[in-house]
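Q: What structure does this chain adopt?
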Amino acid sequence: MATAPPHRLRRVLTVSSNKGGVGKTTVAAHLALYIRALLEDLPVLVVGLDDQQTLDRFFALGELRPEQGNLKHAIAERSFDRVLRLGQYGIHFVPSPPDTALIKARATDPALLGRVLDHTDFEGLVIFDTKSDLEALTRSAIHASDRVIVPVADRASLLEAERVLALAGGRGRLLLTLVDRRSRGAGEVVSTAEQLEREIERRGLPRYRTTLSRSPRVEALLSGGPRPLSILHHGAGTAVHRELRLLAEEVIDELGLDAAAPARPRRAPRTRRGEPAGLVAGIAGVIRRSLGGRPGGRAAAISPRNGRSS
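A:
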């Protein structure tokens, strides 16, 4: 049996909800993008655990060929090394499988994904985007994680969120998404979002200070074409853009990602057949301009929001 390599500097974040339609994949993809923008030297890997291929459309630079491998092959080989790809915006990702039935059959051990990571030559931040269930793969991702983000958009998702928090064992935190503070039920004077905030506080559940607003413009970016468009590059004037920046900073602080980002000069990323050499070299400047940043650390300050500035 192969021996896992020595411990490396790595943080694992899972975005999980047992209810669909709460913005889970949007949060996972954009946290990868915003954290990468704020910490240019921190490698980021996104792994989707379903067969929807949304992350593939978001990050893939070209057509993904079956022989390149996907999540199914990574599970079988107990390593992401062969199948991870360098994608758009300098984000690494693992292509989605055509289906997850066979993977779930192999995922009876909760430690499975943690062992796959232990045999993967990747330093930095790993983000798992789970399916909207609490089946074997989701549980394995939660088991492997340093932090579990649980999006909550309504009362039903709040009820389901408590099940995820129980699995996370103190590593979970709620994130209010699709917030519309103008939305009220019949005869109610307090918005649905405020009711959720009060209920979360009453139950003593941990949550992020930042909330993510509902935005028709952002929804059009994500679903209005053949592939999703990033909020960072195409939604810079929206509230969601500013909120994602603040959320990324919260995650950076709580996971100690400033310390995890290499202090040494960045190595040239490994490229694979079909990927343009030096792809990442020009990405950092583009992302910095989207955030209004500068080289050598986190991007420059944006306008204060929710009483906080960067």
